[in-house]
Amino acid sequence: MPVYNRHNEVTALDSKPGTVDAHYFNVAQTALKHIPGPIRFKIPTLNHLDLILQEDAWIIVDRVLHDMPAAAWTDFQAKGRNNLHEAIPCEIRLYHFSARKVLKTTLDAMDEILHHSLAEEDHDKTVVEFPLKKDE
Questions:
Q1: What is the number of other CB atoms lying within 10 angstroms of the CB of residue 58?
Q2: What DSSP string describes 67-100?
Q3: pTM (2 decimals)?
Q4: Residue 57 DSSP SS3
Q5: What secondary structure does DSSP assign to 35-56, as a single string?
Q6: 12-22 burial by CB neighbour count: b if 16+ within 10 A, else e?
Q7: β-pair partners for 59
């Protein structure tokens, strides 16, 4: 899948500084390291919306409108990060008047889907056990 860039080409209705919870950020970064990206999936409770995860942005797109962006988290300020529990500053862009309503639902769906995908990947790996040597 090619890198999605329309969120940088279309003018946002609103753009503001925000944060993304560390839990969501950590799950997404782990997935992007283990699953070839960009990662795209349907958001289960939002009929025609997909989420595209890339290193530099997470974009909610509307499939019915030819992948027009609805909302995006961009410009993550994670460089030099020395903790795993604090929220990550970012920019939140809204391209649709009601996009704010789907942000939390999207993050929760991302969390569930990525946890499931990563668990399957871990389950598929062979585990090698080495016997412990007892001191004599």
A1: 25
A2: SEEEEEEE----TT---SSSPEEEEEEE-STTGG
A3: 0.85
A4: strand
A5: S-SSEEEE-TTSTTEEEEE-SS
A6: beeeeeeebeb
A7: 52, 72
Q: Which residue matches tokens 């409108």?
A: 65
Q: Bridge partners of 73? A: 58, 92
Q: Which two tokens stand for residue 40?
A: 């795209």
**Residue whose structure tokens are 């995908």:** 117
Note the pLDDT tens digit of each residue in 16-75: 999 999 999 999 999 999 887 799 999 999 989 999 999 999 999 999 999 999 999 999
Mean pLDDT, residues 114-126 taken together? 68
How many whole angstroms separate alpha carbon 134 and alpha carbon 117?
38
